[in-house]
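Database export, one record per block. Field names are fixed; values are copied verbatim from the stored entry.
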Amino acid sequence: MEQNLDKEVITFSFGKNWRSYVDTVNENAVARARKDIEEWLGADAVEGKTVLDIGCGSGIHSLCFHLLGAKEIVSLDVDPYSVESTQLLWERAGRPSNWKIIEGSVLDKSFVGGLGTHEVVYSWGVLHHTGSMWEAIANACSRVREGGLMWLALYRKGPSYPEDLALKQSYNRASKLGKKVMEWKYIYGLMRQRWRAGQNPLAWNEKRERGMDVYHDIVDWLGGLPYEVATAGEVEDFCRERGFETVRIDDDPTRANTLYLFSLPRRELTGPGRERD
C-alpha cells in the first residue's frame, strides 16, 4: 500500500522522545542493550571494528558499541534532539575521540557517501520512518565494507497496516492533551492485560531487553510518521540484489519489527589487483 506522505500531519519528534528517555538510562539499561548486541553479533564481533549507527536515537547502542571496544563509531541522526541525546551519553563515556556524532539524513546521498564504509552498519527501527524506505536501505547498504555486517529492524508488512497508519495520523493531528489521552488509553490496555495475566498492573513500564522502557516505546509507536512496511522476503531480495547474504532473520509475528542481519562477502580477485565483475 502506497502512502501519500504529503497529506500526513507529522508533529512527532523521535529525538524529543529519546531525549526524555536518556534521563532514565542507568547501568541496567546499558547492560540490556549491550547483551542484545552480543547475542546478535557475538561478544567479540565489535572489538576493533568501525561502526556506523544510522538513526542513533537515544545513543544507547552507540554507547554499547564503544563499551564493546569498537575502533571507530559514527552516530548519525537527522533529529537534533537525538543528536543531543547521543552527545549526553558520549559525555558520560568521557568524550572518546573515536566516537563521532553527526546530524544529517540517510537520504542525502552525497552526505552519506562522505561517511566512508564500515565493518558494522546498524539501523534499528529507523529506515521505515524516513519517508523513502527503499532509498534509505540502499544508502545504508552502500556504507557496508566488504566482509562487513548490516543489522536492521524494519516494520513488518501485514493486514493491520491501514489501521496502524490511521492511528499514527490521528495521534499526530491531536492536541498535546489529546496525545496524552491516547498514550494513557494504550497504557490502560497494557495494565488490563497484566491484571488478567495475574501480573502487577502498576509495573507496566518495565524495562525491555534492548535497554528501552515501555512508555517511550509506546510514544515512539504512536507518533512514528512517516511509516512504511515490508515483508521479510522483499527486504531479503532487495539486499541480495546488492550483494548481501542473509545471516539471520527473526520474523516473530508478536513484534512489529522484523530483525535482519546481513553480511557483505568479499569479492574474489580474478587477477593481480583486479576484482571479479
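Remark 1: The first strand starts at residue 50 and ends at 54.
Remark 2: The domain at 5-158+228-265 is CATH 3.40.50.150 (Rossmann fold).
End of record.
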